């Protein structure tokens, strides 16, 4: 699973849900939870169900953010959404203490409808969620993390800042556990939709510490995220040159253009080429 941009789309807006397949995001997150008023929860779940069942099979991934365990809508969401075969469920308020109960509920519905196990993305948005990432990562049903900065800050009782400094520990904790278990890891949304330069800087920082991509709340953000979390022409050229030189060398460590090249550098070059292939960037 490799995703640069995951765009939230409110599940109760027929126009937005139906137009979502043509948007530039790698993944569309159809939302039953925070973006939906209580009075529209049922209609959002049903609209998502029928949309997914009728979408032509799909050139991008479609996830659904369901309502949390303990809410009045959790089981209804599972019964409506799972038979429509989304690519993943985004599970809000995830932490290691309730993950087993959530999965047991999902498996009950999967067995009822004779469905294959669905991928689960844990939405980390509390102090407990951050500190139980290890338990979440150990579970084989967990395929990735998405950090929810707004709810995390609220749970911590702290104010959000323009530079996201208050999320530093949470970001490093979540991305490190994701990488340790080879899971997808997406960074928190950037809520100032008019500040694309600030959004780009935020993406560049999170990409620099290992995040695979960014949760987005506007289509223009998805375009920027796709650029930042891809690989550049310069990076592709470097990777090609390193791998070509590696074939000519018989040593485990060698010097190339004044830089030491060893196994970790070669692996990074291989990963760069894999990403370039994934996103159709090789010429």
Structural summary, described in words:
The chain is an alpha/beta fold. The protein contains twelve helices and ten strands. The protein has helices at 14-19, 41-54, 74-81, 99-113, 127-131, 133-138, 149-156, 168-180, 196-208, 219-228, 233-248, 263-278, and strands at 5-10, 27-31, 61-65, 88-91, 119-124, 142-147, 184-187, 213-216, 254-256, 259-261. The strands form two sheets. Strands 1-2-3-4-5-6-7-8 form an eight-stranded parallel barrel, surrounded by four helices. Strands 9-10 form a two-stranded antiparallel sheet. The mean pLDDT is 92.
Q: TL;DR?
A:
The protein is 46% helix and 16% strand. The protein contains twelve helices and ten strands.
Topology, element by element:
Elements: E1 5-10, H1 14-19, E2 27-31, H2 41-54, E3 61-65, H3 74-81, E4 88-91, H4 99-113, E5 119-124, H5 127-131, H6 133-138, E6 142-147, H7 149-156, H8 168-180, E7 184-187, H9 196-208, E8 213-216, H10 219-228, H11 233-248, E9 254-256, E10 259-261, H12 263-278
Parallel strand pairs: 1-2, 1-8, 2-3, 3-4, 4-5, 5-6, 6-7, 7-8
Antiparallel strand pairs: 9-10
């Amino acid at each position: 699973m490799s995703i640069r941009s995951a765009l939230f789309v409110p599940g109760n807006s027929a126009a937005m849900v139906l137009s979502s397949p043509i948007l530039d995001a790698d993944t569309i997150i159809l939302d039953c939870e925070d973006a939906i008023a209580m009075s529209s929860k049922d209609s959002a779940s049903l609209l998502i169900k029928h949309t997914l069942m009728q979408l032509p099979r799909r050139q991008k991934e479609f996830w659904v953010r369901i309502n949390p365990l303990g809410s009045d809508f959790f089981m209804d969401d599972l019964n409506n959404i799972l038979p429509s075969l989304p690519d993943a469920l985004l599970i809000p308020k995830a932490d290691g203490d309730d993950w087993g109960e959530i999965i047991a509920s999902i498996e009950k519905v999967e067995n009822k409808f004779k469905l294959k196990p669905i991928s689960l993305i844990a939405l980390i948005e509390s102090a407990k969620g951050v500190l139980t990432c290890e338990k979440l990562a150990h579970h084989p049903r967990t395929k990735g993390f998405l950090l929810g900065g707004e709810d995390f800050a609220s749970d911590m009782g702290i104010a959000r800042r323009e530079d996201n400094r208050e999320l530093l520990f949470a970001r490093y904790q979540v991305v490190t556990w994701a990488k340790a278990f080879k899971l997808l890891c997406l960074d928190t949304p950037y809520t100032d939709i008019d500040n694309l330069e600030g959004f780009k800087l935020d993406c560049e920082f999170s990409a620099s510490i290992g995040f695979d991509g960014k949760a987005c709340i506007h289509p223009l953000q998805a375009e920027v995220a796709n650029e930042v979390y891809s690989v550049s022409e310069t990076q592709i050229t470097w990777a090609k040159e390193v791998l070509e030189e590696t074939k000519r060398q018989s040593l485990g460590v060698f010097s190339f253009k004044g830089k030491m090249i060893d196994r970790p550098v070669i692996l990074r070059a291989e990963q760069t080429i894999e990403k370039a292939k994934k996103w159709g960037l090789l010429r």
